[in-house]
Design a protein that fits this description.
Helix content: 25-40%
Largest sheet: 7 strands, mixed
Radius of gyration: 34 Å
Number of strands: 39
Oligomer: single chain
Structural class: alpha/beta
RNA sequence: GCCGAUGUGGCGAAAUGGCAGACGCAACGGACUUAAAAUCCGUUUCCGGUAACCCGGAGUAUGGGUUCGAAUCCCAUCAUCGGCACCA
């Protein structure tokens, strides 16, 4: 019947302070121009990846990154920064829509409920978000600007000379729709019958949908695309100036996949042998390939087209039509999964046609095979079996000629077959004896001079498939008239989706919005676009909206943008100072957001070319059983359950004490208990229980300077905690504070100044406890103001950290033998003499001759013998 | 296959060229208590020795190397996790 006794009254303190903070608008960040705004303060923008508010609520994994950013935010405020620390909701998306399909509950309702639940949880953890800046991607006042940004993208193109986005009006060609950054294309898409929608490549995993795991097939459909490939170079090159983990940069580089090489044209042989360009009857009859190894051109003994390549129909000879068509049918029937199965044998079919190798005028056969992909390069390759693993396998299987053209070091030409690295050119009249670099330059120059090819760069990155056949997303601000698309005027935004009762997919690939007949009909001769935008759209720019969330004239005001997203450190390209989130967004969200940012930057709306200067990925928190937290294993932990027993401060501290932020680590309730004991020790350091069982300020607390030893630990702790917060090493910061608290507990004096410093250091981690204790101390000892948040972060005194005596480690041959203490000012010679006089050292040396003595001042002596 | 990360006590971890295992958990012992909880104090890498203060040896995935000295730097191997994957 009696509740379990709390180690300290967090259940009273925490709600008290949370209410006070709300009432005082304690975390509201002021924009330039607002009353009380202090322009002398530097800004700090610390951002979390905002969540999708699911029905399940938060589990303990979510607040890991949020706690880290909250500590930084509170720390920076104490250091005198004007801190922007906002939170919002990425609330468009499939789960709410599927819930609507099942229950008929409108996603607006579900979203509102889920957001309320998430917000309650976040508030109960005591995060210092500026809730007056809350944004929600499904709010018309927000997506009005998502649609507006889409229109900017739609109305722009990349000028190849400046490589920058410009208004489409500067384009001088005759078909602007061909160069717009948003365009419509008939593309093979990932169609998921079960979800009734297409998916982006990134949302398909092993031939199945990322959401739900349903089968996905290829199917051509008319889709909106965003021309992200026009920014491939900048997205790659501008990673350099960002403080991101190298692994994330590597993932993005890999995803963009830039390859330097050459385009080469192979004339199709019409039985007349090789003809110089000018004499050719049919100048179009060439096969263009892309290769990263033009230096191996003399080794190209055959060509392969992708089975889907339209050229196949033109070149296939009468005799081979049957077998070619049969092969293409088998390939078309295969799923993506089967096609990309690496283990399988090479397959292919001969077209009967031949091409001419422009280098040596050899007549080489043209095949089709599914190991050549239509979607990369030109959908055709030159086969160089001697120096390409796949080509070699293919040539051996179909008995095609193999000519080595690069010599492996120390090997004969014959042995160099299968050598994939670079080397000296052989069997290549124009290139013999040249190194890879020389040969590559020479052959490309030759190709360019003779009109057979040119330098070229290709990317793995594809344009972004931007439309979805869904209800719960931003409608496109676009109408169709006479088969052509037109942008809506800005004045017509926001374009809200129609009210629908039936959210089910139509099943035909036509979006659910097509069911709203009245809504679609825009005018006598125009209809609305019925696709919606993908969930990534809203998250591409939310960090900008946080700077100025209520602005109804612009997506973000100029001045707030310049203040929060710019800064005085000129050579930093990014705006947000610290961005923490899951590694699962390493390529998609982070690449898309960078892309939008660059478009808006080119148009002069933004101060910096990159959105996020410093990025950190928090590691996943596993269940107590070491498995990923999921309903399936029944190992999900709700933060509110933990807070109920141990309090929010203990929850926060434990999340940070578990281990390094970036690392994956398992949850442990016992661990929370340990951290909770630490906080209770802090409490009892300052408070005691009176006869009536009430907590009152301890009578021993006095306004005195601490003794030397605790004072030294105190200053060592200021130094360590400050440094650790800057590097996000929160686990070791907490360890150090535990050491301090142990020392203060054992110290004879209960020193108010020491306690104040401790409370300040601990405040970002355990804000409720430290606020309460600070206030209690202030009531009796009026030295400090009664609000801990109005204080300055403590500084340490280096002179207090110096030792007067130093412990020196004695080693013999690198092995520890003893420790001695020497005076601070002992010379190397004195230290060495003391070491050699040491009995244990002498024992270990035995009778052996001393060859060398290494003295590291203030650290150790190593005696090397024999 | 390619790219990246990780590998240290019973467990989470610390130490990034100089005392391996800070801090915490768990376990064990002690104090307080009629008792328990809570709290406080102590022990706790492994092996061997000693009545004992202690003494000796080994030890950071494995094998080599650099160095007076390596968990830390280099080379190779193995394992686990993540990403990409017939990208020409």
């Amino acid at each position: 019947m009696n509740e379990r006794r709390k180690p300290y009254p967090f259940d009273r303190i925490e709600p008290k302070w949370q209410t006070l903070w709300d009432e005082r608008r304690a975390f509201h960040a002021l924009n330039p121009g607002e009353e009380n705004f202090d322009p002398a303060k530097p800004k700090y923008y610390v951002l979390d990846m905002f969540p999708y508010p699911s029905g399940a609520g938060l589990h303990v994994g979510h607040p890991e990154g949020y706690t880290a950013t909250d500590i930084i935010a509170r720390y920076k405020r104490l250091r005198g920064f004007n801190v922007l620390h906002p939170m919002g909701w990425d609330a468009f998306g499939l789960p709410a829509e599927q819930y609507a399909i099942k229950t008929g509950q409108h996603p607006v309702i579900t979203t509102r409920e889920n957001v309320a639940k998430f917000k309650t949880q976040l508030k109960r953890i005591g995060f210092s978000y500026d809730w007056e800046r809350e944004v929600n991607t499904t709010d018309p006042n927000y997506y009005k600007w998502t649609q507006w940004i889409f229109l900017q993208i739609y109305n722009s193109w990349v000028n190849p000379e400046t490589k920058k986005a410009e208004p489409i009006s500067t384009y001088r060609g005759n078909d602007p729709d061909n160069v717009r950054l948003a365009y419509v294309a008939e593309v093979p898409v990932n169609w998921c019958q079960e979800l009734g929608t297409v998916l982006a490549n990134e949302e398909v995993i092993d031939g199945k949908s990322e959401v739900g795991g349903f089968p996905v097939v290829r199917r051509p459909m008319r889709q909106w695309m965003l021309r992200i490939t026009a920014f491939a170079d900048r997205l790659l090159d501008e990673l350099k100036g960002l403080d991101w983990p190298d692994s994330i940069k590597a993932l993005q580089r890999n995803w963009i996949g830039r390859s330097k090489g050459a385009e080469i044209d192979f004339p199709i042989d019409r039985g007349m042998g090789f003809q110089p360009m000018s004499h050719r009857q049919d100048a179009d009859a060439t096969i263009r390939v892309f290769t990263t190894r033009p230096d191996t051109l003399y080794g190209a003994t055959y060509m392969v087209l992708a089975p889907e390549n339209p050229l196949v129909d033109q070149i296939t000879t009468e005799e081979h039509r049957g077998s070619i068509s049969q092969y293409r049918t088998t390939i078309a029937a295969k799923s993506d999964l089967e096609r990309t199965d690496l283990a399988k044998e090479k397959t292919g079919a001969f077209t009967g046609a031949f091409a001419i190798n422009p280098a040596n005028h050899e007549r080489i056969p043209i095949w089709i095979a599914d190991y050549v992909l239509m979607g990369y390069g030109t959908g055709a390759i030159m086969g160089v079996p001697a120096h390409d693993e796949r080509d070699l396998e293919f040539a051996r299987k179909f008995d095609l000629q193999i000519i080595p053209v690069v010599q492996a070091p120390g090997k004969t030409p014959e042995e160099s077959i299968g050598y994939l690295e670079v080397g000296i050119a052989i069997n290549s009249p124009l290139l013999n004896g040249l190194s890879h670099v020389e040969a590559t330059t020479k052959i490309i120059d030759w190709l360019e001079q003779n009109g057979h090819g040119r330098r070229d760069i290709r990317y793995k990155l594809r344009d972004w498939l931007f439309s979805r056949q869904r209800y719960w997303g931003e409608p496109f601000p676009v109408i169709w008239r006479n088969g052509k698309h037109e942008a809506l005027a800005e004045s017509e935004l926001p374009l809200e989706p129609p009210a629908l009762e039936d959210f089910k997919p139509t099943g035909t690939g036509e979006p659910p919005l097509a069911k709203a007949k009245d809504w679609i009909r825009y005018s006598e001769d125009a209809v609305r676009e019925t696709n919606t935008m993908p969930q990534w759209a809203g998250s591409c720019w939310y960090y900008l909206r946080f700077c100025d969330p209520q602005n109804d004239r612009r997506f973000v005001g100029e001045e707030p943008e310049r203040y929060w997203m710019g800064d005085s450190i000129a050579d930093r390209p990014g705006g947000v100072d610290l961005y923490i989130g899951g590694v699962e967004h390493a390529v998609l969200h982070l690449l898309y957001a960078r892309f939008w940012h660059k478009v808006l930057f080119d148009f002069g709306y933004l101060s910096k070319p990159e959105p996020f200067q410093r990025l950190v990925n928090q590691g996943m928190i596993l269940g107590e059983d070491g498995r990923k937290m999921s309903k399936r294993w029944g190992n999900v932990i709700d933060p509110l359950d933990v807070i109920e027993i141990y309090g929010a401060d203990a929850f926060r501290c434990y999340e940070m004490f578990m281990g390094p932020l970036e690392q994956m680590k398992p949850w442990s309730m016992k661990g929370v208990e340990g951290v909770s004991r630490f906080l209770a020790r802090v409490w009892r350091l300052i408070m005691e229980e009176n006869q009536a069982g009430e907590w009152i300020l301890s009578g021993e607390v006095e306004e005195v300077v601490p003794d030397k030893s605790p004072l030294k630990i105190l200053h060592a702790t200021i130094k360590k905690v400050t440094g650790d917060i800057e590097t996000l090493s929160f686990n070791t910061a907490i360890s150090q504070m535990m050491i301090l608290v142990n020392a203060l507990t054992n110290a004879p004096k209960k020193s108010v100044p020491a306690f104040r410093t401790l409370l300040l250091l601990l405040n970002p981690f355990a804000p409720h406890l430290t606020s309460e204790l600070w206030q209690t101390l202030a009531e009796k000892f009026p030295g400090g103001a009664d609000d801990i948040m109005a204080q300055r972060w403590p500084e340490y005194d280096e002179t207090l950290l110096v030792e007067d005596e130093i412990e020196i480690v004695l080693q013999v041959n690198g092995k520890l033998r003893d420790k001695i203490t020497v005076a601070l000012d002992a010379t190397n010679a004195e230290t060495e003499a003391a070491a050699l006089a040491n009995k244990k050292v002498q024992n270990a040396v035995g009778g052996q001759a001393i060859r060398k003595v290494v003295v590291v001042p203030k650290k150790l002596v190593n005696v090397v013998t024999g």
